[in-house]
Structure formats: C-alpha cells, structure tokens
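Narrative summary of target 7.
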Amino acid sequence: MSSNLGNSFVVPGGIESQSSVPLTQLGSIAMTNDGRKFRYVRAGGTGIAAGILCQSVTEDTTNWENLSVAAAAAGSRTVTTTSTVTLAANLLAGGYLTVTTTPGIGYTYKIAGNSVAAAAVVNIYLEDPIVVALTTASKIDVIPDPDGAVVIFANGTGTHTGNIRGVAVYPLTAYYYGWLQIGGVGTVLGDSNTITVGSCVVGSKAVDGAVGVQTEVTDPIVGTAITGIASTEYGLVNLQIG
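Modeled conformation, tokenized:
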C-alpha cells in the first residue's frame, strides 16, 4: 500500500497481506494518513476475496441469547449458566457477555474463555470482575469475538445474520488473519443493480458480499458511493462502518 501509516500504529505484515498466525490483537484498528481505517480480523471457514463485504459469524440464538444464570457475587470472574447450551471449549474467548435483565443489567464484560458444554450448563470466565452481583433473576447474552471468524456478508433474504465488520482489502484464506477496511475510500463489489454517485450504499439484499442502494431505514449502512457502480462490478465507496 502506497499511503504511509500514521506514527501511532505500526501495522505488522502490512495491510495488504495475510498470515496463518495472529500478528496483533483481533479488532485492532489502523489508519492511513489519508483517513482510511482498517480492522484486524480472522477469516472463518471460507476464503474471502478482495473487495468483498464481510460480517461476523451468524448468531446462534439458541446458545447465546437469553441465558439464565446462577447467582454470582460482585468481584467474581466466573458466570455459570443454569440454561443448558452446546458450546465448544473457549468458543467465546475474546467475545462479550452482557447482562440483559436486572440485577446487573446494562454491564458488559470481556470473555476470557468458557468450559465445554454439550446440552449442559457452562462456565464463562471473564477478564474483569463482575461489578454488580448476579442472581437467578439475571439473564445474559453472549457472543464470540466479532472479529474472530468473519464470513462473507449474507443478507439475500433481507434478514441480518451478523454484524458488518468491513471490506476485504486482500484475499483471505480460510482461518487466516488479515485486515478489513472500515473507513475512507475503498473498493467494494456492487450488486445486480446500478449504483449512482452519491448513493447511500448498504449490505446488498440480492448478492452476498456486495453492496446495494439503500431502500429501507433498517438497511445496514456501509457508506456513500464515490463512483457509479455498474451491475455486478466493483467501485469506490467512502466506507463508514463502525
């Protein structure tokens, strides 16, 4: 990449690269001097081409949402569910736990890991101590690291299955590490509709991994078209991904 990176962040391996082992922390943000922003991720089980819009892994509503828990004292770093779930060991490592019903409501905790569970209760280990004690009335939601297994954006039915994470700037092999662009001028695949300059573009409802023109306020915004994009071609977008 020709643009220099700011002095605040040295990018291991360079933006246009990939590696089989992590070179920095997942979710790390880098910025070029011209205002482009990038997020460090790991690909999921399918390779991703450059210019393709990516999302977090599909949400598992059965094993991640509205879980009941045992009481846990303030200061504890372990939450044990009373809901039975199926989770591989440490699937949630690097992810987040949020308390969704009182007591303890509104707090978010980084997850260090979890025990294995096969239709059983699970222990969730936190990086930081619980602030407000949990009781059997508390409920939680959990997610794995949003950047730990990104996949091609899939929204052909109009139903969101994950959170948009960015656009691949270099081909990523399955389970390899690299960078997605989240801000500034970048190249993205357009869907089967013509996109005009200045259009607000969103995750496509027609083509996986592509952007299309916004038609509903609930569409997940990706950015603004800088160039016109013909059907199924690539074009420049001013990316504005959180």
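The CA atoms of residues 76 and 129 lie 5 Å apart.
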